[in-house]
Amino acid sequence: MATSIAELIADRMDAMPTGEKRAAQTLIANYPLIGLKTVADFSHQAGVSSPTILRFVARLGFHNYAEFQSALQDELAAQLQSPLTRTAQTPPSRGRTAQTVDATLENIHGTFQHVSDRQIRDIVTLLSNRRCGIHLVGGRFTDPIARYMAAHLTIIRPNVSHLTGQESNWRDRLIDMGKRDVLVIFDIRRYQDSLLHFAELAAKRGIHIVLVTDQWLSPIARFSRHVIAGRTAVPSAWDSSAALFVIAEILIGELTRALETESQGRIREMEALRGG
Amino acid sequence: MATSIAELIADRMDAMPTGEKRAAQTLIANYPLIGLKTVADFSHQAGVSSPTILRFVARLGFHNYAEFQSALQDELAAQLQSPLTRTAQTPPSRGRTAQTVDATLENIHGTFQHVSDRQIRDIVTLLSNRRCGIHLVGGRFTDPIARYMAAHLTIIRPNVSHLTGQESNWRDRLIDMGKRDVLVIFDIRRYQDSLLHFAELAAKRGIHIVLVTDQWLSPIARFSRHVIAGRTAVPSAWDSSAALFVIAEILIGELTRALETESQGRIREMEALRGG
DNA sequence: CCTTTTTCGTAACGTATGATACGTTTTTTA
DNA sequence: TAAAAAACGTATCATACGTTACGAAAAAGG
């Protein structure tokens, strides 16, 4: 049983006629990108005609060229998502735990490969205005992350609130939010309608929305000024929110640094109150 | 000077109109494969129209869609040809963000190098007895993780409670806990006295304690039946709880698998209630 | 060496794709 | 608030693409 298309080709290459063998060789040589181009490109590169390419693809078991390309893309997507495990692949009998941990590490790594420093900086700038209020909210499983972030932000700056309790209460809080306020939302599949409605209402009031979501992008992205997408796929019944959690920690850390001088006094004052 | 298309997008994202920004976000979130598919696929995934995608591509400086795809393919080809250099990418002048992310990855990796499968299995066995109640609690910053775990456990089994609110309330709940109950505590520096006292009281009542803490071990370890220590050091003003978060996710995942057959019916029943 | 079978390319076809013009809606500016 | 500008989507078009039929060429078998 061949797991990848490359292996599949290696298996059947011997049984192929001359022209298709040329196609197979050029595909292996330029794997897999040449297979993602057009049939004409592929055939030209291989020095054969277009129908030969199609016959080659059909011989591999695909019903048409599009199906063949989809398979290549899926394979490529899997590769791109896990560049680390590929090198350290096949200590075969790893436990489920180790596998899930690896997947989580990949998710975090992959997430931040597509998050630019600039994006972080912009969001931090937005959150560092102590005049404007910051409101945090999340979905069924992500609300604890909002809470975690709120717990930290409360310490380094004023005007931070975590929207808790019944969803109807959120709307009541809208009355206190102005155009200069920022709403930080955590939302992953399966996206909750209540959050979407709330975000829509907030957006209509001109409130800036910072959305932390998964790679499929919550519909709230439509109303958001800033969107950060984290990867969530792990071999488990649940999606992993670890990447979102790290995003929150990064934002916390950077914001703390940005407000360093101002927040020092605030922290000291707090500790005094706590100690007394 | 932007070297990659991803950077190019990050640079110009701010100056883009709403629809094109959505296109940019979905491309970054599914980078780069969505850009290699057809305009129709891309536009559908982004929730905008085809012309918006083409305008987006044009704004990036490409004369047509094919040119844009070629650029993506070239970039991808370079990546695939040197899989090793990719890890060592973004070489000397890494941002603080990247450094903190790396430290977090190290923490998680290191944490699970010292956590045995056996340990996980034992804890899962302890938590899988549906007769016994599970109570979760955490400290000032770790309580959201307890909450996160509780949100999941509530779905897959009965008798799960998150100890919320004032610390004095926790003690009142002790009266309902029996010898067969399990108390899951998250606690990192600076360890809170209130948590310690509560754990001591619980231990005296014969309640099993599962402690998730940092590598310096909370004093609660003294009363705990199981202790898992996660690494927390990052170059930031705060400690990172990401490793603890992953521990929670691992426990959730394994417990879900352990209770798979029993919890299936429960989940279905829940969705029915939710839908009705 | 001739016949049969397989393989391959030319050419033509229909569809799906990228591109564009235009009207509507939204946002910005006065 | 009204006018101007920008942005967006619908509908349409031209073409490039994948696909197929058919005949020529090559290979295999007798």
From TrEMBL, chains A, B:
Keyword vocabulary terms for this entry = DNA-binding, Transcription, Transcription regulation
A Gene Ontology annotation in the biological process aspect, one of them, is: carbohydrate derivative metabolic process
Which GO molecular function entries does the Swiss-Prot or TrEMBL record give? carbohydrate derivative binding; DNA binding; DNA-binding transcription factor activity
> Which PROSITE patterns is this protein grouped with?
HTH_RPIR
UniProt xrefs under SUPFAM superfamilies: Homeodomain-like, SIS domain
Which residue intervals define the domain HTH rpiR-type in the entry? 3-79
Gene3D superfamilies linked: Glucose-6-phosphate isomerase like protein, domain 1 (3.40.50.10490), Winged helix-like DNA-binding domain superfamily/Winged helix DNA-binding domain (1.10.10.10)
Task: Tell me the PANTHER family matching this sequence.
Answer: GLUCOKINASE, RPIR-FAMILY TRANSCRIPTIONAL REGULATOR
Mind telling me what this protein is named?
SIS domain-containing protein
Organism equals Nitratireductor arenosus
